[in-house]
């Protein structure tokens, strides 16, 4: 299939471009480069041995988005584009609602106008809100605790309603847990702008010397070592999950909108991750215990049976793989991508 990948130079998008190529699909990228760098493209071409078509603009520009669909044929879309920092979303709610929901409106209007009826959407486990029981199943009600999360809840509802109103329009809602790791080559990986919001890039930046110490938020949770547990999934497993969802929609035209969790089904604590990273890298990760953050849950992990049963997909890479691949990327690119 010829697949438009929005946000295709970002962390998960770039790895998915490689997985699409490996599976015989033809990805075309559109990205505004707000949270990524154009130098990602040359590395994707280097790794794949393939020239990749890239369009640089903001999907909220409805004229440019419509023109892209008028000029090029697509069989499907994988939609990653959007702002994604939880804390920033609380400080800039209008920017998050306008960007994330506005880009989806523009994209889906263009898809409908040009009869592109297959969409894989980048959602998040944040749609399960606060206090959801574990393992988190796809049947749980959705809610959120911050504007970023609400943009995911709202986009899921919008896309579900479009599928219900438009027979033949298909949507895979992929709810990821905590993506980490990097391509095994070390040539692409996570390159957050500014101070990392997530655990793994913070750990790796401390290990490589970019930051002095890690803050561990809370050591009094009801877990094995008192630190919070999360379901970490290797980004390449996650990318392969997008390809599996895309293929599943193509094989099952009767599907309208359906959600799948993408996780491992296992929790790993903050201190377990620090220990695994030190062993994988040989570097020290000094840390301090800090107070809990408001709204943080003790334990979060996915129920993965639906994806295993219906998509034929499961995460196979270990915590050790995640740490080793992250270190390979970070140690070779201590300042991230050039440019």
TrEMBL record:
Any one Gene Ontology biological process term?
A: galactose metabolic process
Q: Pfam families from the entry?
A: Epimerase (PF01370)
Q: What is its EC number?
A: 5.1.3.2
Pathway(s) the chain acts in: Carbohydrate metabolism; galactose metabolism
- Report whether NAD shows up as a keyword of the record: yes
Q: Which UniProt keywords apply?
A: Carbohydrate metabolism, Galactose metabolism, Isomerase, NAD
Reactions the enzyme catalyzes: UDP-alpha-D-glucose = UDP-alpha-D-galactose
Could you cite one Gene Ontology molecular function of this protein? UDP-glucose 4-epimerase activity
Name the domain of life.
Bacteria
List, alphabetically, the GO terms of the cellular component aspect.
cytosol
Enzyme class, top EC level, equals: isomerase
**Alphabetized Gene3D superfamilies for the sequence:** NAD(P)-binding Rossmann-like Domain (3.40.50.720), UDP-galactose 4-epimerase, domain 1 (3.90.25.10)
**Presence of the UniProt keyword NADP in the record:** no
Domain NAD-dependent epimerase/dehydratase, by residue range, is 3-254
Q: Which cofactors is this protein said to need?
A: NAD(+)
Subunit note: Homodimer.
What's the family?
Belongs to the NAD(P)-dependent epimerase/dehydratase family.
What is the name listed in the Swiss-Prot or TrEMBL entry for this protein? UDP-glucose 4-epimerase
């Amino acid at each position: 299939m010829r697949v438009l990948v929005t946000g295709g130079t970002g962390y998960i998008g770039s790895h998915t471009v490689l997985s699409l190529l490996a599976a015989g699909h033809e990805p075309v990228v559109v990205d505004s480069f707000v949270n990524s760098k154009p130098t990602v493209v040359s590395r994707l071409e280097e790794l794949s041995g393939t020239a990749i078509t890239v369009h640089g603009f903001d999907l909220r520009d409805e004229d440019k988005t419509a023109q892209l669909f008028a000029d090029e044929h697509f069989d499907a879309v994988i939609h990653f584009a959007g702002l994604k920092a939880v804390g920033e979303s609380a400080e800039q709610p209008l920017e998050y609602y306008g960007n994330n929901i506005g880009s989806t409106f523009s994209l889906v209007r263009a898809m409908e106008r040009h009869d592109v009826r297959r969409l894989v959407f980048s959602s998040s486990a944040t749609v399960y809100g606060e206090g959801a029981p574990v393992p988190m199943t796809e049947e749980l009600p959705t809610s959120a605790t911050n504007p970023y999360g609400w943009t995911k809840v709202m986009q899921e509802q919008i896309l579900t309603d479009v599928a219900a109103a438009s027979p033949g329009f298909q949507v895979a809602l992929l709810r990821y847990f905590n993506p980490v790791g990097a391509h095994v080559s070390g040539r692409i990986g996570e390159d957050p702008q500014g101070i990392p919001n997530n655990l793994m890039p913070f750990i790796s930046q401390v290990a490589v010397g970019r930051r002095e110490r890690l803050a561990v938020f809370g050591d009094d949770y009801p877990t094995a070592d008192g630190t919070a547990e999360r379901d970490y999934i290797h980004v390449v497993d996650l990318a392969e999950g997008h390809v599996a969802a895309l293929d599943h929609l193509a094989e099952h035209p009767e599907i309208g909108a359906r959600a799948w969790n993408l996780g491992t089904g296992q929790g790993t604590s903050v201190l377990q991750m620090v220990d695994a990273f030190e062993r994988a890298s040989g570097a020290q990760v000094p840390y301090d215990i800090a107070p809990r953050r408001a709204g943080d849950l003790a334990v979060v992990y996915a129920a993965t049976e639906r994806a295993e049963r219906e998509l034929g997909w499961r995460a196979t890479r270990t915590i050790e793989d995640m740490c080793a691949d992250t270190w390979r990327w970070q140690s070779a690119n201590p300042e991230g991508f050039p440019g």
